[in-house]
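The material for today's practical consists of a large collection of protein records. Getting from the letters to the tokens is the skill we practise here. To make this concrete, we reproduce a full record directly below:
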Amino acid sequence: MENNQILSFERNRYYVGKLLTSSDFQAEQSYMNQKRHFLNRMLYGEGVVCGLGVYNLDDQSVMVDSGVALDGFGREILVESSAMRKLSAIEGFEGLETDRALLCLKYKEEPVQPVYAVREKEAGDDYQCNRIREGFSLALLDEDALPPAGDLPAPFLSSGVLYEDAKAAVTLEIPAKVCCGRQVRAMLTVTNKGEIPLLFSLKTSFQTPSLINGQGEHETALALEQIKIPPDAPLQRELWFTAVPQPAPESLIIVSAGGTLLQIDGEERGMPEKFLLNFSVEDCAPSALISQVIGSVSMEERQLTGVRELVPIARILLQRTKTTYMIDQIAEAGVKRYIRLPAFSDLHEELSAWFTPSPSAGREGAADEAKAASPSPESPAAPIYATGVCEIPLGVNARRGSRFYSGEIVHGLGKGNVFVQVGFEYLSEDPKLKAEARSTIYGDPLLFENENPPIVYGRTAVKVMEERGSFVAALRLEQDTVHTLAVLRWIAVRAPQAANETKLQKMAGKSISALQPTVVLSTRESHYFGVKFHNMEPCSLTYDLTEKGSGEITPDGIYTAPGKEGVYEIRITCTDMPLITTYAYAVVKRKNADEAQAARQD
């Protein structure tokens, strides 16, 4: 095997009167060969260039089609014409220990064309070979004995261990950098570290501030129920996300131990208190990101990777007895690696069109649909109305008689006289529908006190700013309440007017709300405050704390509680529409001694 070390290239320097010896000519050939092999290895890698199909001629023989391959050293392996071989005559057959063998190509040099050498008489040899023929040989080895391909030590993946003990290990991986607005895959892997199969169960959820799942949510649940995992076959589950459209230099995937259930062979196992996996969201295309990762690997790092001189071309399944053997099956899929050639890049793109829809496909139909759906300019203007949800923070243990006010809310109907009504909205079980249903109480909610709706009891009023196209809702409590938030449904109505749609009108009915308005955390614990968008597409958000010393929060909405107990307010605002705002609250409590000791034991 050749040395993997890549040395500086040296070539002959010719000058008048230079005495040339055989070593000079050998240096000339070595320079050309090494430079060519170096370029092959850097630009193409190892694999099959063309041909080299493998077929069985009979139960004991194979045929290899003509073709070309490159080995790990960048050397060209040329099979000029089809080669037929009996398996028992191929190198390595006698050493096979299993019924799964790999057929490989191997570079081979052979001295040929012996000629009379005058000066060799002194050494007792009158002849030397005048040429070196470059050829190939075939080799067989057990599938498990093939050395692994040299993987570049590129920092592409960010990985973390969710759980590990003597029996099993659970890891999560995701690219260390993902692309804005593009899909990305995370991989959960469960490895059986023992020697016998185990039963594995996991119920957890992943909070992803900078990623959304197929349902447009920042939290993804995962459930694995009583899955048998053998020792030699790790369990893998793919989780697909879409990155947010704006860059996020520091983002996390969060898994909380409190909402995770892990069982191994029926026994519940304790999880770490929290799991954080770091990655970033970059404003670039996946192709550029991958080129950057691969191209950033230095030559020294490349030299540390292993190099194979064997090129696998087929897997052969055998049926063997003590005295004979028979070829059961020949497979190339998953074994043979083809090199993508620049000379056929146009053909590659042309054939790929059969599997990838063209960007212009369906554009004509979509334009026709949009044209049909758009209203006619001559159609009469319809009455304008708007609705939405606003939230009024109440704090903790609000008392009767206290007054609270919402922020300024843009109703989106423009300037002028607009009527706005607010009511108490809640979700409860409807006995007639036999399901949860949303209801709104307008007016005095005490008239429905016998139904015990989950709302605050108070009187409301609305102040409409006609010249600003907005309003403020006010609330005075009629009873003490434990609620920290009053949720109000508002409706705004005005007469039709033939005016162009303004920016404020475009915001009509749009609002946001925290998925968990109030959470209970221990000191220094982290939580992601997800947001639900009402009547609007997801947009960039701004998170900030309303008081100093109330912890830390990242631009992605990951809140870390301070070291002291208390109730802390988090304000969440649409970055491009600051008037659309909501609030969330973190109730921070210290763990008692028993809880702290149990956490340390876990």
